[in-house]
Specification:
Helices cover about 5% and strands about 45% of the residues. The chain is mostly beta strands and about 200 residues long. The strands form four sheets. A four-stranded antiparallel sheet has the order 1-2-3-4, with no helix packed on it. It is globular, with a radius of gyration of 17 Å.
Length: about 200
Amino acid sequence: MIKVIPAFLTITISSFSMATPQGKTLHAISNIDQSTVTLALDDPRGKTSFRELNLKTLKTELLPPPIDLEAEEVLALFRFAKDLILISQWTAGGGKPPSIRFFSGEKKDWSLLGRLNCISFDNIEIEKGKLKVRCEPDILKGKKAEITSFTLPSKKWKAKAVLPRMLERSGELSVSLEGPMFRWSEITIKNGTSVKKVSVEKLE
């Protein structure tokens, strides 16, 4: 059994391998900002890459990955203009505290901001320079659910997310994910009455 730490993730090796497509898959998606989302993509070997996708033009741009991401799972991405906040975590076994990284769109590089003092969570809020999560209760240790916060570089950012993120909306524009959980294979984009489907495998 592989126990993945956030509350929304508990899977077995057999069910994971049977449901996982053989090609490139989508592991996480950001909020919509300026008609664009940022995607975390996994290749068949498990290597993660990051790509921006304009939902109106379908043009993409490859971003440099964090060099220290290693075997951490991408839990959440938040996009603010060209800047990104990435939450990732080593989820196998007992798990480790999630890492929080910042990508500067101006400098085109990543920096590790620190680690979040919370192992299991599924609600995230960014507001007034703080990233807040609702930590799940730990029955064995007698801990109740509590809110844990982390200081971010900007007080202007504002976003909310409930994991896993499978649908994002901004005005008439929306994007939804289809396929096996955390190995999504297709993106459906709606812009008013227009509907487009994009294969993750074909994203270049």
